[in-house]
Amino acid sequence: MEQLQEKLLGVHGRGYRGYKILRGRYVLDGFHLQVDWVQGDPYAEPSPMRLLVAPDRAAIPASLRNNRIRTTALEDYLARQMERAIVHLVKGSRGSGHSGKVRIRTNGQAVLRRSALLVHEDGTVEARLRVGLPAAGRRPLVDEAREMLCEELPALVDKALIYAHLDADDVTEHVNRIEDQAWLREWLHKEGLVAFVANGAILPRRSGVDDRPMEHGAHPFSAPKSLLRTPTLPHAGPTPGMAIPQGVTLIVGGGFHGKSTLLQALERGVYNHRPGDGRERVVTDPSAVKICAEDGRAVHGVELRPFINHLPGGKPTHHFTTENASGSTSQAANIMEALASGSRLLLMDEDTSATNFMIRDSGMRALVSPDREPITPLSDRIRRLYEEAGVSTILVMGGSSAFFSAADHVVMMDNYRPEDVTTRAIELAAGLEMSNKEEMEAWHGSFADAYRDGFGRRLIPETLIPIGRSGRPGKIAWRTPKRLQFGELELDLSRVEQLVDPGQGLAMGYLLRACGLLESPLELTPERALSKVLDRMERDGFDAIRGEPSGELALPRLQELTAAFNRMRVSAVKSI
């Protein structure tokens, strides 16, 4: 403390860069303050600092951190406590630019593994903050800086990071609820299911830009009896809800009755959610991928023959490449890439799909003969996708009966309440004219083989080293909305709908760079290489990939990481 105050006195009379003498580690009141770097002026990104509380001081019970799920839940809780403490204990704006501001990156409604707050194996608690050192113009305000570093930061530690000062019941409940969700997701696989929605869940959100639960007028979810299951959670006990089995499931119903709302909840069911979200017990197969049409995206060396064949001019589709995919082509590529990333469940909504990729009715089949139509619609392939590759599909359809004959289960949403109408849909399908058998058999391959070995693609490592202007090392940064700057490249991830946090996007940039630094990358498929660096981040921590401490990162899934790789405008693969 004395050393820090002495250095602060040395900043008097100097310009803003005088604050740079503060870099280093200090022992304050019951914790260590690590100043990793100091911003160049008050308008720049605030300075990264770390607060490290020793195990005996933090005194977190081992029962709250005895596995990875519980530790992540505990970290989430402490980060939210720190965020609340900042609001109450930090004075805030004290001058120009970011002066006086203190920030910690926290999760939204999802509970993600983050780098902003870490509980280490020995019980040390580490909070990574951004602190705006105060100035008037570019003249340091030393007294205000002393107040921030020597009074407010210790108060934050005392309020948010010391177990004795927390609500023990509240933190335990938070951790237990997160662990219940992880248990449910494992239960799905054991029971041959792909999703579960607990009774009482609140699925509607406040708005398209507010992911919190709707406050008024939302109908609590209630499962139809035919799909009702009651797993016994480790902490919450018996929990009834709707269980969706493996296979092909349709969600149907009239407009504005909750079809897409249910699907959106299932999309987010790959993540755990904070207590009070309304979707805490809505869980989905962890490999599930939302598939959309995505006009204009780049595609590099992807097998499309299961859906697209005999293009005009004889252009091959077994290693299909384009810089400007159509809606149907992009949707076919998105499916095949999801399969290569290990997805066992595809989620689709007709509203975000290409119609000519999804269905083709009898009139159009009669008018346009199979030899003139290169697209085999999903309605002709969806059964084979499950039977040959074991990949299930949950599909929202409100305007066509084309999938009735392929469905294992049909759920109709009526005023946000689900009803099992499978029997009626099968009866109706018996009287409908189904797909053209000759067209269905035009492709004789197997889905199980179509994406094996990553389409025969191999990594080109040098394309994954971000390069800036004049050949200098390129910047990795997250740009809104959903754009990743990777050197001179910019990756548009706006249609990667399960990417829920900027920290995930930023982490993906560093993971892509790490792929380019792997030993013998030419021997690896992109999916194996990406899985390898993601496993390293999970095992060794964020700093092992980032190269230096950062509180800005969140752990992505392999599915979103491969989606980012596949959307690079410069091909990073070669076909063998």
Report on the structure:
- The protein has 17 helices and 31 strands.
- Among the domains are: 2-166, no CATH class; 456-575, no CATH class.
- The chain is an alpha+beta fold and 576 residues long.
- Strand 11 (205-207) and strand 12 (210-213) form a beta hairpin.
- Helix content is 32%, strand content 20%.
Our count of helices gives 17
Record field, number of beta strands: 31
Terminal CA distance: 62 Å
Portion of residues within helices:
25-40%
Structural class based on helices, strands and sheet pairing: alpha+beta
What is the average of the pLDDT values?
94
Entry keywords:
576 residues, alpha+beta, six-stranded antiparallel β-sheet, six-stranded mixed β-sheet, 17 helices
Tell me briefly what this model is.
By secondary structure, this protein is of the alpha+beta class.
List the helices and strands and how they pair.
Elements: H1 2-11, E1 24-27, E2 32-35, E3 47-53, H2 55-58, H3 68-89, E4 102-103, E5 110-111, E6 117-119, E7 125-131, E8 135-136, E9 139-140, H4 142-160, H5 168-190, E10 193-198, E11 205-207, E12 210-213, E13 228-229, E14 232-233, E15 237-238, E16 241-245, E17 248-252, H6 259-268, E18 272-273, E19 282-284, E20 289-291, E21 299-302, E22 320-322, H7 327-340, E23 345-349, H8 355-358, H9 362-367, H10 378-389, E24 392-396, E25 409-414, E26 417-420, H11 422-430, H12 437-440, H13 447-450, E27 457-459, E28 476-479, E29 483-486, E30 489-492, H14 502-516, H15 526-540, H16 542-546, H17 558-566, E31 573-575
Parallel strand pairs: 17-24, 17-25, 20-23, 23-24
Antiparallel strand pairs: 1-2, 2-3, 3-7, 4-7, 5-18, 6-7, 8-9, 10-16, 10-19, 11-12, 13-16, 14-15, 21-22, 25-26, 27-31, 28-29, 29-30
Helix pairs in contact: 1-4, 3-4, 3-5, 14-15, 14-17, 15-17
